[in-house]
Amino acid sequence: MIAYLDPQQNQTPNPPSVAGDGTGTGTGTSNGTETEPSITTASSDFGGIIHAVPAAVIHPKSITDVASAIRLAGTRHLSVAARGNGHSISGQSLSDGGLVLNMRSLDAKVELVSLPDGKYCADVSGGALWEEVLEWCVKNYNMAPLSWTDYLGLTVGGTLSNGGVSGQAFRHGPQVANVVQMEVVTGDGECHVCSDADSSDLFYALLGGFGQFGIITRAHIPLQPAPRMVRWIRVVYDKFEEYTADAEWLVTRTGPDAFDYVEGFVFVNSSDPVNGWPSVPFPSGPSFDAGLIPVGSGPVLYCLEVVVHYNHQRNDKVDEKVDDMLRPLNYIRGLEFIVDVSYVDFLSRVKHVEKEARANGSWESAHPWLNLFIASSDILDFDRHVFKHILKHGIGGPMLVYPMLRRKWDRRMSVALPESVIFYLVALLRFPRSYPEGPRIDEVLAQNHEIVNCCRSNGYDFKLYLPHYETESDWAEHFGDGWSRFVRRKADYDPMAILAPGQKIFSRAAPLRLL
Ligand code: FAD
């Protein structure tokens, strides 16, 4: 294990078994992740809004190193944050004055594991990026996990601690429903292997558990044969009722009539290059013919995005299949955009966005993002108040809105969700230009606040996804009926409240108690 201590910090602990040259210099890599983040890097996250300086950044190589760091923290009254790729928004991966474990430094070996039912899993590091898992599985075995995030520069342990959603979630469930075994170190420094069959309470506690109960060092992710190609389709709606009716119909289809991916987004009904019509067409295809938009359409429009996997085999019949699947949909005829790309290129699509954002500086600036899950019964009202009113000029980035199914999320997991059979992910992925070219961050945060207040005051069945709260009562409200179980699990697995302090759920010093 290598520990880089900040020479300017006088409260540095004595780290266990220090090795390596200990220069403490952050080393950037071409995929935008750092293998050895410095104290400075580990003091902030992708959100760029909250800053907290750790006492030390530890670079564990193995589960034993993780356990040693947690035990050390136990004796020194320190907290420990696992840092995946630091892509949290509100400081969740930070540890103010405590230890940050750089999960990217764990042994990255991947192994294929065969299951008793003849299927396969990838045994991967909790610090592996999903893009690394994809590359390894496709290159070596032509296989791939079933459920993804849109962006793959996130770690396995990071998304399993939150949820992990994308357009496959309606069909295969979120990433937290696509793991069969985890290796973990709990807050008492003990190592465990857990699954649905063994230590199942710990297994389900970890899934969406915000890193509160243990640090995931390895995970078994089920695989399926990887398709070679995808047909990627975008169609446009002017009426939200028609968009949601079609989207909900699509996510309840099963078997050969189902798409392999269903997502969608809201865009502004104008020629604005970032928020408007140009954000819909694929780069090499036809442009957006605004003349086809019905007269009297509102300030925003909706784009449904669907995908069919295929392999270029005669029995794929992809043209017929896509025609049959698009025919019943009520989108604006003529505003359909279709492109064929390889499966890997489709899954890596946000990489291009990252490249552009890095080039124009908006990747490094602050990201006051807001993610919500909202019941289908409330989504039309939400559209009226929020998309058509508060956000009618756009947000300088994608505004995702697409449905998923409650039954794909096991209730034993820690994740808090709306009760509705169908609920929507609403993701406001803001890439504001720095002030004064862009808005002031406090104004943007105030707008996020206004949106959450709108959900509260209208009594919507909703939850924040990737939430950030400051008070115990807010967390209790977030978890609702699940709060007492969450508190009990904390007492069982991390009784000294050492882990994931940046989530601000439990305080290292405060005694645990049931409300
Ligand atoms: P970090 O931000 O480093 O950590 C997040 C939390 O998990 C922290 O509390 C940390 O302590 C804990 N943690 C990290 N690793 C472990 C571990 N091994 N064991 C236990 N706890 C751990 N989410 C989606 O669901 N779908 C998307 O499509 C999606 N796209 C995104 C695109 C971008 C550009 C960004 C910035 C975020 C996106 N996210 C998405 C959100 C993402 O799921 C969260 O940021 C999540 O935190 C994972 O990021 P990370 O691996 O960098 O974890």
From TrEMBL:
SUPFAM superfamilies associated with the record: FAD-binding/transporter-associated domain-like (SSF56176), FAD-linked oxidases, C-terminal domain (SSF55103)
Keywords of the record: FAD, Flavoprotein, Oxidoreductase
First-level EC class: oxidoreductase
GO molecular function, one term: cytokinin dehydrogenase activity
One GO-annotated biological process of the protein: cytokinin metabolic process
Superkingdom of origin: Eukaryota
Cofactor(s) the record lists: FAD
Region of interest (Disordered), ranges: 1-43
InterPro entries: Cytok_DH_C_sf, Cytokinin_DH_FAD/cytokin-bd, FAD-bd_PCMH, FAD-bd_PCMH-like_sf, FAD-bd_PCMH_sub1, FAD-bd_PCMH_sub2, FAD-linked_Oxase-like_C, FAD-linked_Oxidoreductases_BP
Enzyme Commission number: 1.5.99.12
Every FAD-binding PCMH-type domain range: 50-226
Transmembrane segment boundaries: none
Keyword set includes Ligase: no
Subunit structure: Monomer.
PANTHER family the UniProt entry points to: CYTOKININ DEHYDROGENASE 7, GULONOLACTONE OXIDASE
Similarity-based family: Belongs to the oxygen-dependent FAD-linked oxidoreductase family.
Descriptive protein name: cytokinin dehydrogenase
